[in-house]
Amino acid sequence: MVQNIFAGKKVVVGVSGSIAAFKVAGWVSDLTKEETIVSVVMTSSAAEFVTPLTFAALSGNDVHTGMFCHGKEDSMAHISIGRDADLVLIAPATANIIAKLACGIADDLLTTMVLATRAKVLICPAMNSRMYSHPTTQKNLKSLKEVGYTIIAPACGKMACREEGEGRLAEWDGVKEQLAQNLSPQDLQGQRVMVTAGPTREPFDPARFISNRSSGKMGYAIAQAACRRGAQVLLISGPSSLACPPRVTLLKVQTALEMNDAVLAHAANSSVIIKAAAVADYRPEAVSEHKVKKEKIAKELILTRNPDILLALGKRKKKGQVLVGFAAESTNLLEEGRRKLLEKNLDLIAVNDISGDTTGFEAESNQILVISASGVETLPHTSKLHCADLLLDRVQQFLNKKP
User: Fold this and answer.
1) Whole-model pTM?
2) Which CATH superfamily is domain 10-183 in?
3) Is 161 a catalytic residue?
4) Per annotation, catalytic residue among 69, 124, 161, 387
5) Contacts by 325-332, CB closer than 8 A, 24 or more apart
6) What is the pLDDT of residues 61-119, one digit of tens each?
7) Segments of the chain assigned to CATH 3.40.50.1950
């Protein structure tokens, strides 16, 4: 698996005549930075809003603007552009271009190319809210869905025409995730994956609590990667500043007891459970209803043990369910990992070395030791998102009964 799902992929971006075309210039720039090979096809109307030179500079490739404006070697551009594409993205898609595609009209390079391609086609509508809600537009969008095109719903808000409503071009973060999903293998389709992430906070008064350094980055990356691969993902997260990945269901909790209740309530319906959260082992025995003045804080804090959620999951594990644990260790990684694998009835355990600056808590990258009954494997030091994908490769092997 490549580290970056976009790297080396061929994406054709079709731009039609809308003021939102200027936003798509930023999208092309971002895809190019991800090492995507981007080809831009513009309608004549689109060129009135953003010049082809802009897209050429951002993509690093020639921009295609018409059926007959290229040399002899490009006389079949309407066929060749989409032939090798991994994906076609039409953004912004006006009511006019949507109507043409729904009716199979091919009167310019963009519509002809879409009709000829066999790549996946994603369409991002952008238009006045009244135009978008018109029955004809809705009928056309339904027709495009029926032939297999993916429609990315527009956002709701104030538009250039000063009206407010549904019809704004969708935000790039969500569109980019949709592209990533379409470029990813759908080997987790039909799986219900529960992921836990982040720390827990164990209060002893309304202002103070016990916690740890977990940022939630690894758990959120696993949820994002699993969703890209087609899984239905529930992310149960302790306190974190991270944004929930698109199309992932997020359930927020604060304490270990809250996480325990949430996890056990959803465990039976999950085919895969990945416990990446750093749950506090102990909580204060007494919790004050009001803030304790510093002069009255006891010098000794009495703690009580929190439930071991992973141990409970191991005891309840159903046949065919895959259970993955995480362990944050600074010494004896292999020994501690093997002990917890057996003690908690896990299929896999990912051991994090938290002694370095580039792995473990708060870091952008990670390197994990993966232990199962069949062996030990050290995954490469890489980004947390790629690390998540590598871990899911191993999970997928268990789902195929090929550990």
Assistant:
1) 0.88
2) Flavin prenyltransferase-like (3.40.50.1950)
3) yes
4) 161
5) 325/275, 325/349, 325/350, 326/218, 326/274, 326/275, 326/276, 326/277, 326/278, 326/350, 326/351, 326/352, 327/351, 327/352, 328/278, 328/352, 328/354, 328/360, 328/361, 329/353, 329/354, 330/354, 330/355, 331/355
6) 999 998 765 554 555 676 888 888 999 999 999 999 999 999 999 999 999 999 999 99
7) 10-183
